[in-house]
Amino acid sequence: MPARPVLRSGHPTLSRPAKAVAEFNTPQLHALIQDMLDTMVAENGVGLAAPQIGEPLRLIVFGMQDNPRYPDREPVPATVLINPRITPLGDEQEGGWEGCLSLPELRGWVPRHTHIVYTGFDAEGRPVEREASGFHARVVQHECDHLDGILFPQRMPDMRRFGYQAELAAAADNGAEAVEA
């Protein structure tokens, strides 16, 4: 299946809540999932939400082993998650730099829960339940935000920590706060 264009910030589909997936294990659903996986890989993404390719459905894919955008991050298991729900395990949050395929070349410092449980369904409709922490938890929360029409800058408490990746990296090279590539 071909990679699809990723919608960019400002497109109305990205600011609307997505609809629940009603039917599992259909050829259309499997084709959409494959398109999402192909798009995520083509864009060097770690995750992708269906609204990002113009499909307003509560469906996300994520996972990585080695990714040039996140070279120092731990692996995240390859997952298809439909109609997801997130439950934070405690109140602890941690800030971290995030990027998004819908905001190319931009990064921002976003607080996220450090420990979560996520639930949902796989493509066949089987229940999925997994505990996650660290980068894995951040990825899931970021992608689930897309399903509610939220982009990461809306989660940022300080817009001074938002900018183009190259500018943030140059500032870090000159002794400012470190920013990952």
What does the model show?
The chain is α+β, with helices and mostly antiparallel strands and 181 residues long. It contains 3 helices and 8 strands, in the order αβββββββαβα. It has a 5-stranded antiparallel β-sheet, with helices on both faces. The chain has a 3-stranded antiparallel β-sheet with strand order 4-5-8. β6 and β7 form a beta hairpin. The longest helix is centred in the first third of the chain and has 16 residues. The mean pLDDT is 94.
Summarize the structure.
With 181 residues, the chain is α+β, with helices and mostly antiparallel strands.
Please state the structural category: alpha+beta
- Run of helices and strands: HEEEEEEEHEH
The CATH superfamily is Peptide deformylase
Outline the biggest β-sheet. Answer: 5 strands, antiparallel
How far apart are the first and last residues' alpha carbons, in Å?
29 Å
Report Rg. Answer: 16 Å
CATH third-level topology: Peptide Deformylase
Specify the overall morphology: globular
Number of helices: 3
Number of E-type strands? 8
What's the architecture, going by CATH?
Alpha-Beta Complex
| pLDDT < 50 stretches | none
Q: What is the arithmetic mean of pLDDT?
A: 94
What proportion strand? Answer: 25-35%
CATH class: Alpha Beta
Placed side by side, the strands forming the largest sheet appear as: 1-2-3-6-7
What is the count of distinct domains?
1
What level of helicity do the residues show?
10-25%
